[in-house]
Amino acid sequence: MTTAAAPQGRSAPGLDSDRFVLWVLGAAVVVPLIVFVVVPLVAILRLSFVTPDGLGLGNYVREFASPKFGRIVANSFSVSITATLITVTLAYGFAYALKRTTMPLKRTCGAIALLPLYAPSLVQALGILFLFGRNGIINRTFDLGIDIYGFWGIVIADVLYSFPHAYLILSAALAVADARLYESARMLGAGPARIFRTITLPSTRYGIISAVFVVFTIVITDFGNPMVIGADYGVLATEIYNQVSGQGRMELGAVIGVVLLIPAAIAVLVEKLVTRQHGAAIGENAQPLQLAPHAWRDRAALGFALLVCSAIAAIVLVVFIASFVTLWPYNMHLSFRHYRFEVQNGLAPLWTSIWVSLLAAGIGVVAAVAAGCLARWLKPLQANLLYFLSVLPAAVPGMVLGLGYIFAFNHPGNPLEFLYGTLLILAICNVYHYHAQGYLIATTSIGQLSRVIDETSMCLGAGRLRTLSAIILPIVAPAIVSIGVFFFVRSMVTLSAVIFLVTPATQLAAVSVLLLDDSGNSNQAAAFSVCIMLVVAAALGLFHALVWVFARRRPLP
Amino acid sequence: MYLSLRGISKAFAGVAALDGVSLDVDEGEFVCFLGPSGCGKTTLLRIIAGLETPDAAEIRLNGGNLLEVPARARNFGIVFQSYSLFPNMTVTRNIAYGLECRKWPAGGIPARVAEMLALVNLADQAGKYPHQLSGGQQQRIALARALAPKPVMLLLDEPLSALDAKVREELRGEIKDLQSRLGITTIMVTHDQHEAMEVADRIVVMNRGRIEQEGRPVDLYERPANRFVAEFIGRMNVLRGVHGHAAAGIRPEQVELVAGAATPDCWTGRVERCLFLGSITRVTLGLDNLDGQRVTIELQGRRDDLAPGMALAVRLPPAALLRFDDPN
């Protein structure tokens, strides 16, 4: 082979087209993040300072001075701290049982633990009320006079609601371990208690810290459960709703929204700092832990795991049963009458929810994957800015984001005002509400591909778009599908952001559940919840079938 | 001059990785960049490939300014250390990829792919995915893929470092064969002196972002320009106070054993260690009259007549001694 003519001359068109691709992608990622996250946030901040006498601190002064406000802040924190401590402790034990013992039924228990992710966020409270409420089966059967409404009701509901999040983080932390550390400790004569204290706990501390802040954020921003079971025990999230929807006091809603934003933002900031730092907690040569059977430990672990699972499953089961009886708990005969949905637009909100969720899945995949690809191509400083912008929504409570959307888009001056009242804005709101998680799935899967792939492809003559479409996207296809499923499922069950954005014509299923329960039709609320859960189950089933087919068609390492 | 590099400098976060490197590569030559990790050899290769932008440089290929040509338009074949095959494509599609990117007529692609597979003796693996191949097979395919679009130059970035010793040696020979058969100008980066000496027409020894010496393997071994090169390529005894030199070097195989009575020009010492290494025996001697400085001697075959504690006399032939200016 003699040399082909050496490449001569000015920049080939390749360079310019690659730069063009980068700019277009950058604009396509960053502009929507600014329009749909930053602008609403600025709008809510601005509104909180609007008083009849112009911009000022008047709203804050008035709100902070009222004794009710102090009580609500205290309520929010005591509920959140209590629920966080309980959840993280339970979830650590549960994750330990599944990852560090040889107990049976691990897969079943792990699957049951995730159930709350796939139900509308108020199902926990609904189920608890079917059991322990004023008209619950326990109080009606045994006449115990249990009063579950208020503090403990919210705490229990939120423990169940946030449990899967804590479990996922902690089981990831407990899943990795360096067997050599444990062997060395045993050789040096350390007992199980000492090993746990000196090795297991320290090596999972980042997971624990992360779980604490994630659960705290979930609980303090939760709206559905306190709404259903809180009664007159007000928390920040429900207070925003009361001020805005009940009394039309937009600016007071904005003030409370800003107040809620602060602890949520701090918690997310701490959590992100912690998880970004702990990259190299486990060495590259770590040996996987070999678990040995241990009779009494395994039995205790199974007992504990089953206890947790039965609490989680009981809630779903009770809601399921309640939807099929004539009138829980008075008339327990089988009946399908709650599935007739004679009120509240009938079944239409369910279909609306499915459409919105499909839209959100489509937009979410494009937004998250585009951001993930962009992060791969950017220089470190720019990539850090993109990271900040992309995970910013995680720090914004759904109630605050939804309220921000009203202020920003229900405004004649906004060129995007036409979006208001459409299905599209509901889908967009869901996408940017959950953008952080979608972005993180995308960057971890796209980011873990070696840069050598891009460089090899480039040297073989490919442009960025070809590298992306021929190599990178096919490799991460399963992750892309899972991002779509993630946005679909979240959109089906979320309540907090969209509660302010639905109109009678764009009513959503999760909102219907809340309204049905609010108007005393808890059996119909249960039936609607079951419908939502069935749609979610169908989506997950389809996803797993797809992954299975994909894996069979083309074996990947 | 085929490829000409002038004054190449590159710093990462203020630390100089390359400090004014200049070098010429002739057409059809096989050049190795050799040096310890962090010496700048990979950075230099990546600048030639267009994957890194130098802070200052002039790079010409056949007289044309290469800096104006983006990496994807240079048509250089490149093989990285590992995992550079596209995992979602079969072997055939991996090799065809560069041809498709370079807009080869579709009809000609299958024949070229088959030709390349035959070249690396892996025609039977055409339909497999990369993870179904061994490490050595993967690197052969990577080589075939790099060569398929008839590149003007072949760049190899530690292509053998991730492989087992035996496969590494095998593939080393194959790369050399391929290169001389195709006559393609090739630059290989390596930290392994044996690898460099076996394949290269010319070795460029690098250290701390600079070129220490360049030349044929035999020149570098016999006439190292400085102590760094002398110690990096092969083994070198460096002794203070021999024949009046501040520091003098001698290769272990140049040291001569003196049988019988000590002559005035020889040094005596005691055997400290005696290692049998198969084809040679390596003896470490502590020299009595040189403050106990150690000298390593390599002798052919097995030497049962030597054992630790024995007294021994050696001669350091003046012709074999290399003078080093810096006494360290």
List the helices and strands and how they pair.
The complex is a heterodimer of chains A (557) and B (328).
Chain A: H1 13-48, E1 50-51, E2 54-55, H2 58-65, H3 67-100, H4 106-113, H5 123-132, H6 137-142, H7 151-175, H8 179-187, H9 192-203, H10 205-221, H11 224-229, H12 236-246, H13 250-277, H14 295-322, E3 325-327, E4 331-334, H15 348-377, H16 380-391, H17 398-409, H18 423-433, H19 435-447, H20 451-459, H21 464-475, H22 477-493, H23 509-518, H24 522-553
Antiparallel strand pairs in A: 1-2, 3-4
Helix pairs in contact in A: 1-13, 1-15, 1-17, 3-7, 3-10, 3-14, 5-14, 7-10, 10-13, 12-13, 13-17, 15-16, 15-18, 15-19, 15-22, 19-22, 20-21, 22-24, 23-24
Chain B: E1 3-12, E2 15-25, E3 30-34, H1 41-49, E4 56-61, E5 64-65, H2 71-74, E6 76-79, H3 91-101, H4 109-119, H5 135-147, E7 153-157, H6 165-182, E8 186-190, H7 193-199, E9 202-207, E10 210-215, H8 217-222, H9 227-232, E11 237-239, E12 247-250, E13 256-258, E14 266-276, E15 280-287, E16 294-300, E17 311-315, E18 322-324
Parallel strand pairs in B: 3-8, 3-9, 6-7, 7-8
Antiparallel strand pairs in B: 1-2, 1-4, 4-5, 9-10, 11-12, 12-18, 13-17, 14-15, 14-17, 15-16
Characterise this structure.
Chain A folds into 2 domains: 16-56 and 340-557, MetI-like (MetI-like fold, Orthogonal Bundle), CATH 1.10.3720; 66-278, MetI-like (MetI-like fold, Orthogonal Bundle). In chain A, 71% of the residues lie in helices and 2% in strands. Chain A has helices at 13-48, 58-65, 67-100, 106-113, 123-132, 137-142, 151-175, 179-187, 192-203, 205-221, 224-229, 236-246, 250-277, 295-322, 348-377, 380-391, 398-409, 423-433, 435-447, 451-459, 464-475, 477-493, 509-518, 522-553, and strands at 50-51, 54-55, 325-327, 331-334. In chain A, the strands form 2 sheets. Chain A has a two-stranded antiparallel ribbon with strand order 1-2. In chain A, 45% of the residues are buried. Mean pLDDT of chain A is 89; it is low at 1-14. In chain B, 26% of the residues lie in helices and 32% in strands. Chain B is elongated, with a radius of gyration of 24 Å. In chain B, strands 6-7-8-3-9-10 form a 6-stranded mixed beta sheet, sandwiched between helices. In chain B, strands 13-17-14-15-16 form a 5-stranded antiparallel beta sheet, with no helix packed on it. The two termini of chain B are 38 Å apart. Chain B folds into 2 domains: 3-229, 3-Layer(aba) Sandwich (Rossmann fold), CATH 3.40.50.300; 236-324, RNA polymerase II/Efflux pump adaptor protein, barrel-sandwich hybrid domain (OB fold (Dihydrolipoamide Acetyltransferase, E2P), Beta Barrel). Classes of the chains: A mainly alpha (557), B alpha+beta (328). Chain A binds chain B through residues 1-12, 14-15, 18, 450, 452-453, 455-463, 466, 470-471, 474-475, 554-557, and chain B through 2, 27, 49-51, 61-64, 66, 68-78, 80, 82-84, 86-89, 97-98, 101-102, 129-131, 145-147, 149-150, 152, 182-185.
